[in-house]
Amino acid sequence: MADAFGFHALQLGLPQLDGLRANRMPHRWVASDSLILPEALPAPPPADDVSTTLVGEQPVQLHCEFDALPFPSASLDLVLMPHTLELAADPHQALREAERVLVPDGRLLITGFNPASLWGLRQRAGQARLRMGLRRGRSTLMPSAGEFIGYWRLRDWLRLLGFELEAGRFGCWRPPCRSERWLQRFAWIEPLGSHWWPVLGAVYEIAAVKRVRGMRLVGLARRELKTARQGRAVAAQRRREPADAIAEVHDA
User: Fold this and answer.
1) CA 207 to CA 99: how far, in whole Å?
2) pLDDT at 125
3) How far apart are CA 62 and CA 32, in angstroms?
4) How far apart are CA 80 and CA 10, in angstroms?
């Protein structure tokens, strides 16, 4: 986020994660579709934090619906969606709204849980146990609301909306564990997973750029067209003299 250039940035959802903290844009918003409690917001950075000298003021908190953003079309330079599509009521419309408010060549960053991972399999098993009424399935490791969207499926959605995929990354190849102690024990799997089975990471991130199709003549073609327009001759209509008109009448 520190390298994203522009003037207006928006984060949709998950206000507990200050994703725009390192961003340098002067106008930043953090939107939520539910009322944001003060204790749910991230604590302000300390005074000696280097990031405070980069970003200045904190982002403005905004309450709105993700499928009807209160921004005009082509007005934002950056839209950050941390797990927004998974928890949105209509993920297709939320993605279309993000495309609408982005300027041409604006950037879109999406993070999500990968259903094709050990964490995704554990999540589906826990939800199945919960639907069956089994006691062991009452709690899940990840949020039970919403639906996880696959990495390749989301890429197809972005291409249909005219986005150009800039980068895609995966992370967290450790097996699902509740204890921080066991997560640290499986830390040796991370370098192996990033090398041998990268697409099986529990979390993925997609960076895309909005492209607007158009035609513009540049260089030699534009100069040739200008020369052709200047070289056109306008044919002037010859004015008939009165003597010519009288001669035609006598001949008739």
Assistant:
1) 13
2) 75
3) 6
4) 6
**Dihedral of CA 42/47/53/57: which sign?**
positive
Query: Distance between CA atoms of 207 and 167, rounded to whole angstroms?
Result: 5
Residue given tokens 């001669």 in the structure block:
247
The CA distance from 106 to 79, in Å, is 8
Using 50, 70 and 90 to split pLDDT, how confident is the model at 54?
very low
- CATH dotted code for 8-210: 3.40.50.150
Query: By the 8 A CB rule, do 32 and 15 touch?
Result: yes
Which SS3 state, helix, strand or coil, does residue 222 take?
Answer: helix
52 CB neighbour count, 10 Å cutoff: 15
Specify the length of the chain in residues: 252
- How far apart, in whole angstroms, are the C-alpha atoms of residue 169 and residue 21? 21
Cα gap 81→149, rounded to integer Å: 13
For the chain, the structural domain boundaries read 8-210, 220-251
Model confidence over 80-103: pLDDT tens digits?
999 999 888 889 999 999 999 999
Distance between CA atoms of residues 31 and 67, nearest Å: 12
